[in-house]
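Hey, why these numbers?
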Amino acid sequence: MRLLFWLLMTLPLLAAEPDFGKFDGTAVIIDLNTSAKTIYGKHADERVNPCSTFKILNSMIALDSGVVRDENETIKWDGVVRGYPAWNQDHSMRSAISVSVVWFYQEMARRVGAERMARMVAQAHYGNEDTSRTLTDFWLGGGSLLISPVEEAMFVKALVEEKLPFSKRSMKTAKEIITLQKDEQSILAGKTGSCNAIGWFVGFIEKDDESQVFAFQIRGEGANGAEAKKIALEYLKNQ
């Protein structure tokens, strides 16, 4: 991982296409210094469910709504045993987003409430802004909320530039809790998402005065966020 981080720190010009392998892949990369947008694949403007990438927005909504004190407040596990052992314990927002705990963010949504959630998703101009399916699953597979890779990248761009309709504290916290690697010069941040045979990995890279945001999406049998992340990191390190 140290070698990968060193390679990412260079932030060179993008060139070769990502290797999506067996998947139907799409990637959108935006250079924040030049505003240049690089697109690979054919689904850049097609909306699908955001899956767990919505946790980035859900975090800011929860924080600004005051339904949790901060990203470190612990919520007790509801006792329902789920298929991922890491989910079956108490969690804070910080720990929950790192292992993508669905029940935690469903509880955040319940606390926020349907009316306030709908209003704040619309204020963020997130995808089609449709939260009409049940409050705890509108962003998951088959839900009403849809977003395209271009829109995901533009959302992350607004987050990095702190131009979303949320407090500076909430935006800084959202960026910090999705940070995967960091040193004095560079940051690599991202969030995966998986549902309906779709995998997402969205995030940003910063080094000194250079920044890029990205949204990778894959489709097909076996597609999930972990695979999308692997493809994205392999692409980014080889540029």
User: Anything to note?
Assistant: The radius of gyration is 17 Å. The chain has one domain: 2-13+22-237.
